[in-house]
Amino acid sequence: MTQHGDMAEPSTAFVADVFARDCASRAVFDDVTSKWASLALLALLEGRTRFNALRRRVDGVSEKMLSQNLRTLESDGLVVRDVIDVIPARVEYELTPLGREVAGHLRALADVLETAVAR
User: Fold this and answer.
1) Where does 7-62 have alpha helices with state H?
2) Is there a cis peptide before residue 10, judged by omega within 30 degrees of 0?
3) Is 105 exposed, middle or buried (0-12, 13-18, 19+ CB in 10 A)?
4) How far is CA 118 from CA 42, 50, 59, 100, in A?
5) Which residues of 67-103 are buried (b: 16+ CB within 10 A; e: fewer)?
6) Is a pLDDT exceeding 80 seen at residue 5?
7) Average pLDDT over residues 27-39
8) Confidence band (pLDDT; 50, 70, 90) for 118?
9) Host H or E run for residue 50
10) Has domain 26-118 been given CATH number 1.10.10.10?
11) Alpha-carbon distance 4 to 27, whole Å?
12) Residue 85 pLDDT more than 50?
C-alpha cells in the first residue's frame, strides 16, 4: 500500500529467474551448457580463433554442430564472428566480455572435473 492507503502498483521491473520456463536466461543457460557450446567457449577463452582451428581444438565436433553452436552463441551475445575479406575469406571467432565471463566460470568447472579425474 502507498502512504495514502491506495493499493500498491505491481512492479514492472524485470526479474530474471533461470528456473522460470519462459525466462531468457534459461534459454541462454540451455545453450551454454550444451556439450559443444561449452567446449567452444572454453577453446575461445584461449583467444581469437579461426573456424578450422577451433574445430581441431574441440576434438570430435562436426563442422555442422560447431557452426550451429557458434551461431547460437553469437545470437546469445557471447561470441563475435568476424569475416575477414581476403581470398579465400577467413572467419574468426572471439568471446565478448560476457562470453569471457561465462567461459571463465566454465573453465573453473572444467578445472575441478579434470583434477577429480586425475586423482
Assistant:
1) 24-32, 35-44, 51-57
2) no
3) exposed
4) 19, 31, 20, 26
5) eebbebbeebebbeeeeeeeeeeeeebebbeebeebb
6) no
7) 96
8) confident
9) strand 49-50
10) yes
11) 42
12) yes
CA 113 to each of CA 66, 106, 116: distance values in angstroms, whole numbers, following the listed order: 23, 11, 5
The 10 Å Cβ neighbour count of residue 57 is 15
Residue 49: phi and psi, rounded to 5, are -140, 140
Q: Report d(CA 97, CA 63) in Å as an integer.
A: 25
**Residues 6+ positions from 89 with CB-CB distance below 8 Å:** 83
Assess whether pLDDT exceeds 50 at residue 1.
no
d(CA 29, CA 14): 18
Q: 119: pLDDT confidence band, cut at 50, 70 and 90?
A: confident
How sure is the predictor about 89, in pLDDT bands with cuts at 50, 70 and 90? confident
